[in-house]
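Fold these two proteins, one after the other.
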Amino acid sequence: MSVIEPPLPSLDREEGIGELRAGNLGLRIARTADELDAAQALRYRVFYEELGAHPDETAARTGRDSDRYDAVADHLLVVDHDLGDGPDAVVGTYRLIRREAAETIGRFYSADEYDISLIERFPGRVLELGRSCVDAAYRGRAAMQLLWRGIAAYVFTHNIDLMFGCASLPGNDVDALAAELTYLHANHLAPADIRMKALPERYIDMRRMDPAEIDGRQVLVSLPPLIKGYLRLGGFVGDGAVVDPQFNTTDVAVVVQTDLVTGKYYRHFEREREQKDRR
């Protein structure tokens, strides 16, 4: 087991906070245009070259996955220091958009697929998660744990009360995903007051088979690691799936209230913040 050091309770681009570390891997928020470019290049390699998304003219020309939300977001970066300390060492990324940032554009990214009016009316601090990917050579436990630690640190730094976003299942064949979609709807449907619903023109019923016929253990094995991570944090799914032809995925809405996050990441950073406050 690698030693994780130093555990930092704060991640904030403006404050210039340093990295979380796990052996040769570090995690920080992108601080420069070159680091953002590296995250967009990694997203292009994973989403388009590996997973079969269909690039538009700009993406194909630049070899970058980018949109207008990138400019207002914070971007978590996983860096392999064995490859160096600069943009060429970026091997993982996750995009974080706070409510205040989304307001500068006028909407959240998820609003393209879901009615998020309940989330927009939520009285606390809100964070949208998205565009998560890790280089194929780093898809072990270490990189994903580091990303979740980074999210936990960010939640504490900015006092986030609720996290949400869209998570993807591979492929556009919803019948091939019947067991996964039905399982999620039957076992992890969000409470009504925070339940996002797919837009009417994009709504696909997740209840595609009898839940009694599902082998829950087998479904959990088949779910993408990102969705399993949300569920481990006490997350829920919204009502309805959405097919995304461009990215060759079937998306589900996910929502996590941070007061339900009882795992080791949350407790770890709570202790770190308390220690900092006593200094």
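Now the second one:
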Amino acid sequence: MNTDWIQPFNDALQQWGGSFGQLAMTSLRIGVIILAAWLIKRVLHKAVGGLRHHLTKGFDDREAIKRAETLGRVIRYLVSVVVTLVGTMLVLSEVGISLAPILGAAGVVGLAVGFGAQSLVRDYFSGFFLLLENQVRQGDVVTLAGQTGTVEEVTLRYVQLRDYAGNVYFIPNGQISTVVNMSRGFGNAVIEVGVAYREDVDEVMAVMQRVAAELREDPEFGPRILQDLEMAGVNDWAQSAVMIRARIRCQAQEQFGVRREFLRRLKKAFDAEGIEIPFPHLTVYAGEPKKGKAPAFRIEQQA
């Protein structure tokens, strides 16, 4: 019996089987690459977290702890980017796509993008030095690009701030020219009080000293204060008040609450001592009348 007609089917079947086996092996290698990349990323993330915990577990300095947390987050981000990039290149190689033309094209495209996206490149460079020089850390209260708030996130491209009202600001690092950090070492609660010209400034300053001493003895606010009230004295003769300036050195980020509590207590002390706190008012002045005419009135406003 002639079976030559079966041979083409056998050849097709063997070819299909070989192609299927090759596809299966390629899929298996790709799966192994993806799984290995995922495992390497998880292991490195845990290693970075463990190293951060090991380095900071004996620290009492909040600044060092916050710096370690910020750097740890950035390192985990860089690890994710590098592992993902290497894994993608290996997968493309398994698929049969040559990497040499892609890398060459990427270099040309990167050069063009570098000219077209200079602000983005500036953001990354500024973010790198921002972290390297430890200018901003997560949890700091700062003023950046005219906005003040608490730092919620620091990346190589932007800093995320949340202000007192709950608004969130994303500030590109390239736009940050000056950093005002109110969370380093200590903070001064600056108090500038205006009293009426009739008041004895020595008496006023004595009342301020007494209120500050009572505040430092308070079990809640005392631990936040590092030094006694530092009296600068009369700072200005304003339009309707004598301005007296002083400051209290506090722990970092505690100066805001201490200042509010001091002003609250000082208002009650001024009321008890009868010390006048001036406020805007109007003075009505009757001018000198001419014969046969009604008196003239003039209104002066004092701020």
